[in-house]
Known about the structure:
Layout: E1 2-15, E2 26-48, E3 53-68, H1 81-89, E4 95-110, E5 115-126, H2 130-134, E6 136-137, E7 145-147, E8 155-167, E9 171-192, E10 198-220, E11 224-237, E12 242-243, E13 251-259, E14 263-272, E15 292-303, E16 307-314, E17 327-328, E18 335-336, E19 344-351
Parallel strand pairs: 7-10
Antiparallel strand pairs: 1-2, 2-3, 3-4, 4-5, 5-8, 6-7, 8-9, 9-10, 10-11, 11-12, 11-13, 13-14, 14-15, 15-16, 16-19, 17-18
Amino acid sequence: xxxxxxxxxxxxxxxxxxxxxxxxxxxxxxxxxxxxxxxxxxxxxxxxxxxxxxxxxxxxxxxxxxxxxxxxxxxxxxxxxxxxxxxxxxxxxxxxxxxxxxxxxxxxxxxxxxxxxxxxxxxxxxxxxxxxxxxxxxxxxxxxxxxxxxxxxxxxxxxxxxxxxxxxxxxxxxxxxxxxxxxxxxxxxxxxxxxxxxxxxxxxxxxxxxxxxxxxxxxxxxxxxxxxxxxxxxxxxxxxxxxxxxxxxxxxxxxxxxxxxxxxxxxxxxxxxxxxxxxxxxxxxxxxxxxxxxxxxxxxxxxxxxxxxxxxxxxxxxxxxxxxxxxxxxxxxxxxxxxxxxxxxxxxxxxxx
Length: 353
């Protein structure tokens, strides 16, 4: 059992010289002195039901208090954050409080000495961050506004998971599948005010996600080791019956390593499928993305004095590709698709004392 606390404060001004000759012209109070305090308490217990059956139960409570201390302060443009909230959401609230409860129940059974089956049901809650709740970036001549939603509700995840682990003297396999029903999913979306002025904003929708993960590892003789992973997630906005944005496509890796007494080396292939389930209207998915495969090499040499030298080559074939889960412009909130680095060589020296 335990308690925890986290306090954050976010302040940011956006300057512009497009409307005056002043370089200190405050165009927006992007984070208007946003303070968030989260205090939590949790308890978790493991209990052996029999020699082969185990139970874990847990409960968590969080109190969240957030406020925008400068929501009534005006920028040089003349607008205040409260006016932006009212313009796009019909509220001038600059405070929010939440009482969030989560928990889990996990049951595991050893079917044999090497094979374990487990199932988990859980509820978890994610509160909105300072950006989702109180960002207040007014529109410019070229960019839309970016406005947080003071009245947004926290995400509630209700998940069921089934998994298994199998191991032998030379191999281990872990697999799991899950279904997650999300109430009040925090969606980044394109919104408009009463006059049709667009903005990047936030709203709650209901959603469903399901997927699975697989990990396998096998030792081949004295020196060789093979490994593989796979992961997939499928997300849908059940409110609109449309794909959720920013869902990673099917991904798999396969690797082979050689280990000697003082050194090791290996190669890995990372394979990612195309993603054609996109939500272009939200502005978060820039486009459908093609699949790709990337080859990485790595090696390690153990040196005297407890030193270790690691080196490798990432993207050996200099593949041009970009991740589907894109990045965001830090001043406008707009999604941008950026290519990942080409062929890269790296080296790292570490020591233990």
